[in-house]
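Dig into what follows:
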Amino acid sequence: MPLNFRAMFLATIFAAAVLPLAGSFLLFSPDERHYGEAAVQMVQGGELLTPRAADGALRLHKPILTYWTAAAGFELFGVTALGLRVGFVLAGGLVVFLTWRFARQVADDDAAAQTAALIMLSNVWLILTAIRATPDILLCLFMLISAMGAIELAVICSRSWWAPWALYLGAGFAVATKGLLPLVFVSYAVVFALVQPCSQRTGGSGLWHAPSIVAGLVVAGAWYGLMIVLHSHAALGAFWHDQVGGRVGGGWVHVAAQAGSLALALPISFFPWSLPLVGMGMVDRPAFIAADAVQRRFGRFFLGWVVLLVVVFALGSETRSRYLLPAAPLAAVWLANVYRRARPELLDRMLRGVLVLLLLVLAAFGGLLAWADWQMNAGGRAVVVATCTLAVVGVVPVARLLGRRPKPAIAIGLMILALAPIGHLGAGPIFLPASGSQIARALALHVPDATNRTVVYVGAPAMATQIRLCAAGRYEVQHRKDLDDPIDPQAVVVGPTIKLDSLDVGAYRIHMAARRLGETEPLELIRAIVRNRLLQYAAEQSEVHLIAVPRDGQ
């Protein structure tokens, strides 16, 4: 198979594996509501330049590209979970493809490029951000493009025509996705080139390229400038608070604690790929030492960028491990190159040990889900989950029986990725259909004229967004924190029973809207499955939603 087709194949496999998760609300980030609601407003109202919340208020905290990506998905696939997220799934596939190209650029080695792509497609951050409509995966994609240009100019010291365009346009699109971080990266690349200059023979780093710099600045600043013209200081105030003013805080102890957690987050995100590094550190330390100048420069560039990211985010009032995602493709390439330099027999033995561990984990994971489905009276689904798990787990031993030895790196990457579709398939009877989907169907059944009336959801704001998306945007869904907030007496009220307990039932007709397992501790859920009491546990922990229809309106 030609090398580019291998890269495209892995990218396609990634997108196909995570697409089922993206098409449901099994995993829903509260941040997605901001981009989903604004994208619905854009598609239905036609105002494509200014993102707005569900109540029509300006939402200028984040730049425009994430909203446009969600809106484009709605135009293609309708106002659905899949429409909201499909563009982000494609971005994740592109990250996998470009990681292959990036590793090939750095190492000039096809095996290392394949390993880097496999490491990246099985990264937990990549999987979780690719199935959510948030800026993180787009930021990773555009900063990877920028990094490819920076490495070509400042590390490989080549003056390829495309490199400055990748560096500055990639950074420009990244700024138009999430803000100021890409400017920090470009500044870092320039400082690195000054501190670690290329030899005279190459004629300099080529970082100064006026046309690409201007183009990058235009892409980065055009939307911000337009918002300032249209909305004056409101745009600057919201953006500054989101990027700087609302982020900085905490004493030195807080900063040190966050720095420590972030430093550990990167190797943890690449588990189990990071496990062999422990063994290499004890018996094969030369694998960490690059023999050629380009590899040494890349190692220094990568390490410096990770340290800078840790420092920047540790200074914030709060941080998340996924904030390091822009460094993940570089980490995958660095790790693949360490593997390439390792003693082959030692690396093969360690990776096979990791593969055995992974086979056991996957078998236990699939078996637990199949047993859970059986308890939920979904016997057919249980059989399918068990069969899929056995098929994936059995590939390696069957191949060995047939006299073939599959490469452990390929098996590890694809088996980690297989956890996503198997998890979605097995978790369906426990968590799906999501409450938002059930409520949307109940509204259509019990309130035929709901499209002409206001629906007020009382409770978590993310659920109001789910209802609107599951109803394909047909309802005007408003959010209220509790019943103390003013509610139109003619509005249809929806909410969990605990939120509607003080509702005047004499003024409303009450209908069941949804019943689904509520928030639960993972260990408690696993314990219930193992002890064959999942149905009882689900009944005890279930969250019931009701629809209250005004009596004079129905």
Observations:
- The first helix runs from residue 3 to 22.
